[in-house]
Design brief:
Layout: H1 2-14, H2 26-31, H3 37-46, H4 49-52, E1 58-63, H5 65-75, H6 79-84, H7 86-95, E2 97-98, H8 104-107, E3 112-114, E4 120-126, E5 129-132, E6 136-145, E7 148-153
Parallel strand pairs: 1-7
Antiparallel strand pairs: 1-2, 3-4, 4-5, 5-6, 6-7
């Protein structure tokens, strides 16, 4: 019952996203948010800016800067080391992208989503909120872009076998 109430509350809170008249692309919206500066730098380094600026639609689970710092510490890597490994960086980033627009109201009804990286991410509604792979929490849903939607998350998701 508690999960159902949380699901309903979350759905009500995010079912009517505010859309600006001149919303930019996912890359433009992320670049305008200082909390996503590491993500934007990583996307530039991996050569994904043009793809994520394309028509879409996309859903991006966007780790904030603190999430990247925590992941790098856990992996024992520096930002420079991660950025230097463009193959791994590309896998990690494309694992955060779903090739369809999934606002939170639709996301919460799913058990999993397929990513551009060609793997899946599990989705669950918990007492804490919406979790991805039982680890990352959707901290701010429904950041609207002209070519999709961004859901800010509090952890970096690693693709299977990464």
């Amino acid at each position: 019952m508690r999960k159902l109430l949380l699901f309903l509350l979350f759905t009500i809170l995010v079912s009517v996203p505010v859309v600006a008249q001149d919303t930019g692309t996912i890359v433009e919206v992320a670049a305008d948010n200082p909390d996503f500066s590491t993500l934007v730098t990583a996307a530039q380094t991996a050569g994904l800016v043009d793809a994520l600026s394309g028509e879409g639609p996309f859903t991006v689970f966007a780790p904030d800067n603190a999430a990247f710092e925590a992941a790098l510490a856990e992996l024992g890597m520096t930002t420079d080391e991660l950025l230097a490994d463009t193959e791994m960086l590309t896998r990690i980033l494309t694992y955060h992208v779903v090739p369809q627009r999934l606002p939170a109201a639709e996301l919460v009804a799913l058990d999993s989503v397929s990513t551009v990286e060609d793997s899946t991410i599990s989705v669950s509604v918990t007492d804490a909120g919406v979790r991805l792979n039982d680890s990352a929490l959707v901290a701010k849903p429904d950041i609207i872009a002209s070519n999709g939607v961004i859901h800010a998350i509090d952890a970096v998701l690693l693709p299977p076998d990464a």
